[in-house]
Structure formats: structure tokens, C-alpha cells
Amino acid sequence: MSEGEPAPRLNFGALVGGSFLGYLRKDGTLTPPVLTPAGMQWTGDYATGSLADGTLRLLGRGDDVFRSNGHLVAPAELEGLFQRHPAVRSAAVVPAETTDRGLVPVAFVVADHGYEAFDEIPATAAAVAETTAPADGQLPAATAESHHLSATTDDVTSLLPTTLLTSSSSCDKSGFSSEGALQLQCNLNADSALGKTIGMERYEYVSVTAWRDDQYARPNFIRLRDTTDGTTTTISDDSTRLVNYDDSVNTSVHYTVIDRSTGLNATFRMNSVAAGTTFLTELGWTS
Asked: pTM surpassing 0.85?
């Protein structure tokens, strides 16, 4: 059985479809749905079932999203809201089973140093966001003292060039960094203007993994700036952005981009230095 074809009766498999248009971004555009090689929409759900009578039994998700009262809940986004409050050092949100409502999100919160009780912390994640988010809805700039980690996809997309977002077939959560920052993976569309500019073939796979980590960005900026390991490093005119690449491996060139003014960290691979240079230029990551 090949990918994208119906599974036999009661076999475990991934649910796919074709009616989903995408998620609505803040600017009114839609994120393209993730498609399988067979052109079907990947839902993220796993199930068993029968084609004969149309029955399905949902078994779970391919990520940590769960359904509560008819709504899809992303624990990482709720955790990020809690962690924006100065009294919260860390938070974990998990689904808990109830007798009348099914699964509901439950948060485990650790107080930061100097806070012994949680009496002054807002009772809901929505209240946390309202009391801690900047007035203009944008995250503050990175500084030597800031400790922000990306907790939502918006935390990352707000730092990425519009050209990358509009030229990607998808930009979705791909996991977490070693420090716990939510990472976003943007898969470049070979048919986009950017894909054609860098000479992508239809079968090629180019993706950018990005996240925000203020405390990781600054020391690694200095480490790569001063490295003598044979890799190549360039720094922007204002000394805030660094690009490092390693072409010692014959199969591909590995790039790292760090912007210490925003806390952005990004990595990607290219087939050649020439393609990588063009890609960086198109994204405005070279000046």
C-alpha cells in the first residue's frame, strides 16, 4: 500500500482529505494546507475504520494538539501566554479528562524567583496575554537582559521576511529547540517566484527552521563571529545580523542566520553557495 491510498479495513492510518483551505493569518491571508505527495490534505489525525460502512475511530493526533469542547487546543500557545507573566518561570499545559466535558486544558505553573504565591497572577491565559502583551501587539526587541522564547507561531512569523512566508507552501510548528522555544518550519514552494529565482527543481526540498530565543542568539552570534573552524561568516552593516555557512559537506551547504536585535535564529540547507547567497539576498538577510 502506497502513501495516499485507502488503508484496508481496521488498519491504522493517517486521515487525509481535500476540503480545508488553510488557517486565517492576522493579515487576512490563508496558510496553504499541508499536502501529501498524492495531493491529499494532511489533517494530523490518526484513525482506524472501514471504507465499507464509512465508520472511523479516531486514535489521536500526530502532534500535541487536542480537542476540548469542540475547539482545537495547542498547549504550546497557552504555555507561552502564561510564561509572558513576570511571576511565571515555566508552565506546562496538558489535557485532563473530565466526566462531563471530555478533555480540558490544565496548566502546571512554576513561580519565578521572588514569587512565593500565585494570588496576583491572572486566573486565565487570556488575562495573562492582556496584561503582559505590548500595546501594539508586537513582541519587544531582544536585549542582553531579555529571555523571550517563541511560544506561538506568531512569535516566529512576525520576525520572518514576508517573501519567505508568501513563497512557502506551508509554515507550521515543527517542534521545540533544546531550550524549549517553539520552532517553525517553512517549506519553500518550487513554483513560487523565490523558488524559481534560486533555481529550485520540482523534486527539490528546501525548508527554513526558525525560532526566537534571545539568550541563545546573543552568545552564538559571538561564537560564530569569532569561529576559526573553517566555516564562513558574514555580518550585516549594522552588526545585528550574522550569516554563517558550512560547505565542507559535498551534498549541501548548511546555513545559520542569527539576528541578535530580534532573537531570531534560523537554519536551512542549499545545494550550493550561489543558491544560498541568492536566497539570502531575496530575503534581505545580507545587508
From this structure: no
